[in-house]
Design brief:
The chain has about 270 residues and is α/β, with parallel strands linked by helices. Helices cover about 45% and strands about 25% of the residues. The chain has eight helices and eleven strands. It has helices at about 25-30, 60-75, 90-105, 130-140, 150-155, 165-175, 220-235, 240-270, and strands at about 10-15, 35-45, 55-60, 80-85, 110-115, 120, 125, 145, 180-190, 195-200, 205-210. The strands form two sheets. It has a nine-stranded mixed β-sheet with strand order 3-2-1-4-5-8-9-10-11, sandwiched between helices. Helix 2 (about 60-75) packs parallel to helix 3 (about 90-105), helix 3 (about 90-105) runs parallel beside helix 4 and helix 7 (about 220-235) runs antiparallel to helix 8. The chain is globular and about 55 Å long. The N and C termini lie far apart (about 60 Å). Bound molecules: adenosine-5'-diphosphate (ADP) and pyridoxal-5'-phosphate (PLP). Adenosine-5'-diphosphate binds next to strand 9, helix 7 and helix 8. The site of adenosine-5'-diphosphate has 17 residues, from strand 9, helix 7 and helix 8.
């Protein structure tokens, strides 16, 4: 049992050599926000899978099991939070369910944050077989679930065309056992804005997010990490957590957009 009040998270997500997704998106911001972060990389790819060539390795189940065993043998497996993201195999996701059980034996108050990374804009970017494992095994275990619109629709089998549809999907996710449901982005806004929604059954908040004219990768992983950290730092104040998460993301997304536009301008002048 840890007597230290520092929040400690085990983050099981992807790693990329070049770019920022998965643990590359999550670890540093979590450390800046006061978390001790232990990271396990489900994959080690050269880049995220939106690139033309995908090179690298996928962590084997027995390798994940060995890492978890090492943490337990050295008695450093006490965590306050558990965060999971990108994983390509149903078996590794089932293994994550058994890890939750182990970590909850060490800390019954463990908070499990599940980012059900499956796809976006109407298509999967991981094998379809992961969907039933998220839907039937991991989502019911989540204290906080952070799907984007596509992922929320896949998990519930419902579609959202308006706010009422989104609220129905949120209710369906609560009914699966999720305490806090956060739709990181939906297309329910208009051309200029996307909508984020956070609900913990007692209260529900909607936030209008000005869109930048670009598609970003890694933002969902950053969103999940920031939401988890701000939920802890605000003592689960849902409204403040959503506001601080989006404010941080908008600063980072704007900075990225401005820098990319600057680089494009220089390139066009060559
Ligand atoms: N084009 C964009 N313009 C402004 N903010 C964006 C944009 N794309 C993503 N974001 C920010 O990133 C957050 C998560 O984005 P989202 O697309 O839902 O993640 P993912 O699809 O990667 O899970 C959004 O809540 C928003 O704050
Ligand atoms: C290796 C890897 N990890 C994570 C992600 C998830 O990124 P996002 O945060 O945009 O959902 C992707 C998306 O393509 C990916 O290829």
């Amino acid at each position: 049992m840890s007597t230290d009040s520092t929040p400690r998270v085990l983050s099981i997500q992807s790693h990329v050599v070049h770019g920022y997704v998965g643990n590359k998106s999550a670890v540093f911001p979590l450390q800046v926000l006061g978390f001790e972060v232990d990271a396990i990389n489900t994959v080690q790819f050269s880049t995220h899978t939106g690139y033309k060539h995908i090179k690298g390795t996928i962590l084997k189940n027995e390798e994940m099991a060995e890492l978890i065993e090492g943490l337990a043998l050295n008695e450093v497996d006490y965590y306050t939070h558990f965060l999971t993201g990108y994983s390509r195999s149903p078996d590794s996701l089932k293994q994550i369910a058994s890890i939750i059980t182990k970590l909850k034996q060490k800390n019954p108050n463990l908070i499990y944050v599940c980012d059900p990374v499956m796809g976006d804009n109407g298509k999967m970017y991981v094998p379809d077989e992961v969907l039933p494992v998220y839907r039937d095994i991991l989502v019911p275990l989540a204290d906080i679930l952070t799907p984007n619109q596509f992922e929320a629709e896949q998990i519930t089998g419902l579609t959202m065309n308006d706010l009422d549809g989104a609220l129905k999907i949120i209710d369906a996710l609560h009914n699966k056992g999720v305490k806090t449901v956060v739709l990181s982005s939906t297309d329910l806004g208009d051309e200029q804005n996307m909508i984020g929604i956070a609900s913990n059954k007692d209260s529900c908040y909607k936030i209008v997010i000005p869109k930048f004219g670009a598609t970003f990768t890694g933002t969902g992983d950053l969103f999940a990490a920031l939401f988890m950290a701000w939920s802890h730092k605000t003592n689960k104040n849902l409204k403040l957590t959503l506001e601080k998460t989006i404010a941080t993301l908008q600063y980072i997304v704007k900075d990225t957009f401005d820098k990319a536009r600057g680089l494009l301008f220089v390139w066009l002048l060559r």
